[in-house]
Amino acid sequence: MSLRTTTLANGFRIVTEDMPGLKSASAGIWVNAGGRHERSEQNGIAHFLEHMAFKGTMKRSALKIAEEIEDVGGYINAYTSREMTAYYARVLSADVELALDVIGDIVLNPVFDPREIETERHVILQEIGQALDTPDDIIFDWLHEVSYPDQPFGRTILGPSERVGAFQRADLTGFVHEHYGPDQMILSASGGVDHDAIVMQAEALFGHLKPVGGSTIQPARFGGGERRKVKKLEQAHFALAFEAPGYRDDTVYAAQVYATAMGGGMSSRLFQKVREERGLCYSIFAQSGAYEDTGQITIYAGTSEAEIAALTHLTLDELKRSADDMGEAEVARARAQLKAGLLMGMESPSNRAERNARLLAIWGRVPSADEAVAKIDAVTTDGVRAYAGAMLTAPSALALYGPVKGAPGIDVIKGRLAA
Questions:
Q1: Residue 50 appears among annotated catalytic residues
Q2: How far apart are CA 155 and CA 258, in angstroms?
């Protein structure tokens, strides 16, 4: 594997990783412009802008954008996260130049036709409605809002319907001018790629742009609390979060090992105790999410109204017990799962391109897979137990949805964990 980086004079960064033997590649533009970069009146505009990028440019119609990529058997898409917006394509190696030309065009030259804005507004409003009708999706938005209240980082990426319903062309162009500068973009490509050719193309496409300067983002502050919505559903949805380290904190690896051991698979403690031994739910899992300056350990379960209290208490008991008796075998299994997930994922050029862009944005460099594996291997059982013990008094947040009137609240949860 050959990872190379280049920075143009205007701050535009390029990172490529040649994967010998591959006849395909993944390439795209990652922009430091996500949900946390929005002001309150802009909430949802980064996602709206992502949608509009595919609705036509100065030289390509929406249909032409799709046809040019699909005519060569490729795939093009985009996503908005809390920290970045990405536009990317998967194509054969011979078509990387075409893919980057199309992506550069949709990023730099969208026309924002008012008619297309109205069409896409309705699409996004339908997307918001669909999310609201999907309890095991919307509950994570609520959990995030409760975890990070009254700050950009806590707001939903889709935005509220009333905001989306009011955005105009000037709002979209204003956000682009604020954030879509070369110094806020990363071109990442992996697979069968030629670094020098990509740099030459990037210079032609992006080298003339003027830097916009780094935007000031509000540091994330984990607040915590509870959001409960009682509704007649078949399942009671339970989501519990604890403040966890961000990417810049090396304890992020202990958090990941801990979350995996607790609820990362069928052999995990929560799956075995709550589902297999007691039959209190069909679905339960734990995961660790990390961002630039914060993170979350999240536990989710869906259960019946009759079982929600028992499930909550058993989950809390297992969290407490793990601080004392997390075993060597559990930790070793979790480390193996994390390493395998990392290394298997890196066999995909799409995963590798995304990883390289994300880490370059955070660190200013791309740590190797070997470096990440070494840090995972360095996590000890004592370290995981210590992390588990500290988490019991960490700030926490709770979201409940469905027939949850009788579910224990956040104060009960905190009290049981502290006892």
A1: yes
A2: 27
Return the CA Rg of the chain. 23
Q: Please write the tens of the pLDDT for every residue from 188-241.
A: 999 999 999 999 999 999 999 999 987 778 999 999 999 999 999 999 999 999
SS (H, E, C) 90-150: EEEHHHHHHHHHHHHHHHHCECCCHHHHHHHHHHHHHHHHHHHCCHHHHHHHHHHHHHCCC
Is the separation of the CB atoms in 286 and 274 below 8 Å? no
Contacts with 370 (C-beta within 8 Å, 6 or more apart), sequence order: none
Average the pLDDT over 362-390 and give the result.
Answer: 95
- Do 158 and 131 contact (CB within 8 A), yes or no? yes
CB atoms within 10 A of CB 274: 25
Cα 117 to Cα 98: distance, rounded to the nearest angstrom? 26
- Annotated active-site residue in 17, 38, 41, 50: 50
The whole-model pTM stands at 0.94
Q: Which two tokens stand for residue 355?
A: 């990883």
Rounded Cα–Cα distance for residues 202 and 206 (Å): 6
Contacts of 330 (CB under 8 A, 6+ apart): 261, 269
Q: How far apart are CA 355 and CA 26, in angstroms?
A: 12
Residue 397, helix vs strand vs coil: strand
**Residues 71 and 79 sit within 8 Å (Cβ to Cβ):** no
| 3-state secondary structure (DSSP) of residue 318 | helix
Question: How far apart are alpha carbons 258 and 100 in whole angstroms?
Answer: 40
User: Do 293 and 248 form a contact (C-beta atoms < 8 A)?
Assistant: yes
